[in-house]
Amino acid sequence: MLTLLTFPAAFGLFSASPFCVKTALMLQHSGQRWQRSDMLDPRKMPHQKLPVLRTPGRLVPDSDLIRDWLETQGADFDKGLSDVQKAQSRALIRMAEEHLYFQVVLDRWGNDEVWPILRDLFFTEIPALIRRPVSNSIRKSVLKGLGAQGVSRFSDMERKDRIERDLEAISAFLWQSPFLLGNHPTAADMSVGPVLASMRATPADTPLTRRIKQDNLLNSYVDRMEQAIPLA
Question: How far apart are CA 195 and CA 193, in angstroms?
């Protein structure tokens, strides 16, 4: 049996990480037998990140590499799509994972209202005596990384505009069909859906959570994804 090494469930989601949720959706869709194994500290994992898939032969890191491995085992996440649709799928995935995802990270780690919740959830393995200074140091490192990535350099208004353009692009697809590229979920949905779900699930009332919750099209799409490929 395959084992998905993942961050634990949080905020009502399978995992706090949309990449872990994406991988779980791919596993469920692939028909492979699999189980989850939760962990909080991925430093000993390949790439020092999660998700990681434990297969009979090796550990496979990174959700994209896990997708590649599952496809070598017979999975087809873009069944029935044309070459143009597959290209659109890749563009949607990159938009969600390389731009919108970092907006979620900033909405959580940069928000003083959300931070105490994250600290108590993610750092329980650190002894209580040193938990606050260690977690604050990690938070500082994450925020520094967001500065290097660039997302935190924009003003709130600039960020809102950039997010809105992405959400409008996603909505343009969803006006045409129940899922991004047709009547059933494909690889694009397994990336975009979890990122939107993460936006909605951030444990505070932020402009980003309100933007998803108050948008009937996007909100119902997230619900539809959860119903189409249910995760335990």
Answer: 6
Of all residues in the chain, the percent with pLDDT exceeding 70 is: 100
DSSP per-residue letters across 104-128: HHHHHHT-TTTHHHHHHHH-TTS-H
Q: What's the pLDDT tens digit per position in 182-204?
A: 999 999 999 999 999 999 999 99
Surface-to-core class of residue 44, CB atoms within 10 Å of its CB (0-12 exposed, 13-18 middle, 19+ buried): exposed
Q: Would you state the structure tokens that stand for residue 115, as one six-digit string?
A: 């931070």
What domains does the chain contain, in order, with CATH numbers?
Answer: 2-72 (3.40.30.10), 83-228 (1.20.1050.10)
Residue 193 · residue 218 · CB < 8 Å = no
The token pair at 121 is 């959830």
Tokens 């059933």 found at: 184
Q: List C-alpha distances in Å: 179 to 7, 109, 183.
A: 26, 30, 6
Q: Which helix (DSSP H) or strand (DSSP E) does residue 44 occupy? A: none
